[in-house]
Predict the structure of Adenine phosphoribosyltransferase.
Amino acid sequence: MTRDEIKALVRTVPDFPAKGILFRDVTTLIRHGDGFAACIAHLARMAEAAGAEVIAGMEARGFIFGAAVAAHMRLGFVPVRKPGKLPVRTVGIDYALEYGRDRLEIDPGAIDKGARVVIVDDLIATGGTALAATELLRGAGARVDHALFVIDLPDLHGAERLRGAGVSVEALMDFPGH
């Protein structure tokens, strides 16, 4: 499938989670077997070109796309979790959200020093979560210089923020607006 055919599988839900927002819902893509497989194949080619040795994905939809890319490439997957979800000692980072703060954690033993980790997630908006994940993974010894997304919302400038942190950003598709 082409990128445009995959893009056509993403549902737009107006006024969610707030009035004026056009929510880009990937669940319609995920439930479409051929579309999801094609999406993963595109992302895997991009990750291979980036020299991925490990794939990391942020909770929750980054787990879906990232783990599928890792399995497709026969690479390991590192889940970047919300706090309190890992049963071992973790390292974490607190970061700012549009309205408040959040935290991400990883098992530091899941990262080999110097491993080239490519981040995979469903969507980049403001980039706050991806920047925090990049900093967290780098702090654990990973080389993080590529991040891949199914969707970019360029009007929110998240990809620009990541590029400013030395991370190459690619997305299968983009949508204007928020």
The chain has one domain: 3-174. The beta strands are 11-14, 22-25, 54-58, 76-80, 91-97, 100-106, 116-124, 143-152, 168-174. The domain at 3-174 is CATH 3.40.50.2020 (Rossmann fold). The chain has a mean pLDDT of 96.
